Amino acid sequence: MNRQLTGLRAFVLAICLVPAAAAIGTLAVRTGSALSPAGLYLATSGGEPVSMYNVLKLQRGLPLYQDPRDPPFYPTTLYNAGFYAFYAAATWPWRHDTAAVVPAMRLVSLGLQALGVGASMALALLAWNRRRSPRAAGWAGLAMALAAVATCFGPLLGWWTVTTRPDIGAAAFAGIGLVVMIGLGGRRPLAAAAIAGACLAAAWSFKQSCVLIAGGMVLAAIWQRRYAVAAMLMLPSALVVAAFLAILGPDYRANVLWATSLSAFSLANLARMASLLAVKGGLPLLASAAALPFLGRAGWMRREERATLVACWLTTLLGGLVTSCRTGSEANYFFELWFVVVLLVMAGVRLLWDAAESAASPARVRRARPALAALGLMVAAWAGLDALRIAGVGDGRLGRIRLALEPGHRAEVDRAAGLARRVGGEIYCQPALSGLALDPPFPMPIFDDYVYFHRPAAERGLLRGPGLRGLLERHEFPLIVLEARSEEILAAALAAGYVRQPGWSYLAVLEPPAPAADAAVAAVMRGAGADR
Fold first, then answer.
1. Which keywords does UniProt give here (predicted)?
2. Per-residue DSSP letters for 300-355?
3. Do 350 and 448 belong together in one domain?
4. What pLDDT is attached to residue 373?
5. Contact 117, 157 (CB under 8 A)
6. Which residue, 118, 165, 24, 431, is CA-closest to 32?
7. Which one of 47, 125, 233, 407 is separated from 414 by 20 to 30 angstroms, measured CA to CA?
């Protein structure tokens, strides 16, 4: 029997260790790539460039929130002030060095992710393992910690772990609030609720849509008639929301409330996000769902903990699916769900460990072998995909984990930077982190939220002035530099009469029609092409 028990424990450790090692391997490759010189020229997620730009505005003493309806820049700052303030403070020493501040911001995101998963591990090791002998608790805790690493740094979060956006920080603070409530709520419920409420308020201060874990915690407290706990959970967020709305003024409200409401709902986007969740997060999500019916057998978990986990799993899953209906939504709307999934996966590993001890007889082991074999195959396939990504197999079809920058790409961006300095004026540039690699003067035209905000606002006649297309038709920009993927803006510029310049392979460089008044600009452009 001892041999059977040892074998089962080894199996549980193995199915946790293998995907954790694969996840850490892919994270290391991604992080190294994001911090490499190529990382200055390529974004790690959609919306990262404009997020960095707004942090840099704050560091330079420029207004963070401006009316997004006003020309000529139509500036959007779509997230909450806590995100920008936190990143600006954390990267303050490097604010004047673009090459240093870009990787520093990405490391802040990685640190927040590590903080969130570390809090989850602390709960598992200090609270859920409290009734075991030190030796047994150590091995079970190791398995649970490995499962947390495999889940939290797995394919679903991917590049988001090292991108400059509010999603990781918001979800991490919400997850920490959940951990605090679960870990301390039994002994000092009101104090735990106050601390958890402060964490939930911090999460909202990063991203205003980060309310799903908070909703689950409040619903669980109300269901259990713990009304004082529910009130204490909501109080800090209510105070922060009121303060932000009152102090930050109408431009803040125009950005975080009005501008973010314009993107359309799309069932096609919902279907795409549901399939992405199944492909990149299917195994952990399935494991968390499988753990839910067995939480009643977890004698080491209080009834309030079980109710809170179930409620948060439901609110974050359903809420993530609803919010992912919006045009432009991505996997980031499932990040709150993922911190709940991490806790449930660790609980599931602990339940599996306990089941291995109680089912160590040869007959029970034989009956469990098919299920264990199926689980082992799924874990092996899951880890194998990460191994293939590390090896670079599949030419990116399995998901790229390296930022690929062609040798000539960087040279073209550097050449475009010199061109921008010589031409002067309000230059529209959107390559390599929206032109940050060009190091232009602030403020500068940024239309990264064109699909999410600018286009729907223009279509509904909500913008003041001519809008981006009107600016192009007026030839307001003496120079336009675009990435190859900026097809819609490129088409609009060409339709407005801008002329695409030859000699550029990775960027689209355009000038307005060249009457006599613009001859000097045209000469500079042609000279830049000859300097290649």
1. Membrane, Transmembrane, Transmembrane helix
2. TS-HHHHHHHHHHHHHHHHHHHHHTTBTT--GGGGHHHHHHHHHHHHHHHHHHHHH
3. no
4. 76
5. no
6. 24
7. 47
pLDDT digits (tens, 9 = 90+) for 248-275: 999 999 999 998 888 778 888 888 888 8
Terminal alpha carbon distance of the chain: 75
Letter string b/e over residues 145-156, b meaning 16 or more CB atoms within 10 A of that residue's CB: bbbbbbbbbbbb
Task: Compute how many other C-beta atoms are within 10 angstroms of the C-beta atom of residue 428.
Answer: 25
User: By the 8 A CB rule, do 435 and 481 touch?
Assistant: yes
Phi and psi torsions of 210, nearest 5°: -85, 80
CA separation for the pair 336, 315 (Å, rounded)? 10
Within 8 A by CB and 6+ apart from 315, the residues are: 212, 213, 215, 216, 219
Q: Which domain holds residue 465?
A: 407-530
pLDDT tens per residue, range 156-175:
888 899 999 999 999 999 99
- Residue 18 domain-assigned (yes or no): yes
Residue 379 and residue 412 in one domain: no
| DSSP state string for 102-155 | HHHHHHHHHHHHHHHHHHHHHHIIIIITTTS-HHHHHHHHHHHHHHHHHHHTST
Report pLDDT digits (tens) over 62-109: 999 999 998 887 888 999 999 999 999 999 999 988 889 999 999 999
pTM for the model stands at 0.89
Token pair listed for 265: 């709902």
Q: Are residues 278 and 353 in the same domain?
A: yes
Beta bridge partners of 428: 480
**What's the token pair of residue 514?**
């060249």
Contact present, 508 and 484 (Cβ < 8 Å): yes
Distance in angstroms (rounded) separating the CA atoms of residues 201 and 208: 10
| Residues 411, 341 within the same domain | no
Strand partners, 430: 482
Identify whether residues 379 and 413 lie together within a single domain.
no
Q: Are 64 and 54 in contact (CB under 8 A)?
A: yes
Same domain, yes or no: 299 and 183: yes
